[in-house]
Write a structure and sequence with these properties.
By secondary structure, this protein is mainly beta. The protein is built from three helices and 13 strands; from the N terminus they run E-E-H-E-E-E-E-E-E-H-E-E-E-E-H-E. Helix content is 10%, strand content 30%.
Length: 227
């Protein structure tokens, strides 16, 4: 389900897509939307993945384990060789291959599998993390409510939780001091990884997003490559 993601921080934006992916195709009533060691070399085994993507009971809302068998192993988190002139800490989104990279320096990056925008909704360019949020409130815009009346009950804001489409962590992307309405967010929908499902936002598995979020300060540069 695609919904518009619009906040009071709005104003004129430089990117035209104003939508966000709800993490479950089941509808508004079932919105689905730990730092762990990364692995180099060959793709990690399912046994290793079950540890990396295991439950996180210490969170405000305990996070369940990911069903790793619903994900192509090439999208499991790992450390890879990556040559770039970008500084360590920079986030690079590769929508064509469904990856997000965090540059570590010395020719390496942490690579995460991602979901990205659908055909016709992908974008490219430079942005930066303007703000961060743990377990944010989600408020559907008026345009979304008009199109999907079942969302009206959340007009005052959907409380944080496992079913909130913004998930456990969200990085809000800005350009020139203005929120673009795009985010990097956490999703519990394992089968969305490696697919174009949103209207421009980028989703990582919750366990991957916890890792990226913990190492990404405000003002971090984000580069979105051409699809």
């Amino acid at each position: 389900m695609i919904v518009d993601d619009e906040t009071a921080e709005g104003g004129k934006v430089r990117l035209s897509r104003r939508s966000f992916l709800l993490g479950s195709a089941a509808g508004i009533g079932a919105l689905g939307l730990a730092g762990c060691t990364t692995f180099g070399g060959s793709t990690m085994s399912f046994a290793e993945a079950e540890k990396v993507y295991g439950p996180v009971p210490s969170e405000r809302f305990p996070i369940p384990a990911v069903n790793v068998h619903k994900i192509n192993p090439k999208y499991f988190r790992r450390t890879v060789a990556y040559n770039t002139k970008e500084a360590a800490g920079t986030i690079i989104v590769d929508p064509r291959n469904y990856y997000v990279y965090r540059i570590e320096g010395d020719g390496y990056a942490t690579r995460y599998g991602a979901n990205v925008g659908r055909d016709g909704f992908r974008w490219s360019g430079d942005a930066y993390v303007g703000r961060k949020a743990e377990w944010p409130v989600w408020t559907p815009p008026k345009e979304m409510i008009a199109r999907q009346p079942e969302a009206a009950k959340y007009a005052g804001g959907m409380a944080p939780g496992l079913d909130n489409p913004l998930g456990a962590r969200t990085l809000y992307l800005y350009q020139n001091g203005v929120y673009t309405l795009y985010t990097i967010y956490s999703t519990r929908v394992a089968e969305s990884i490696g697919k174009g499902v949103s209207s421009g936002c980028i989703g990582l598995l919750t366990q991957d997003m916890l890792d990226l979020y913990s190492r990404t300060p405000v003002n971090t540069k984000v580069v979105v490559l051409s699809a």
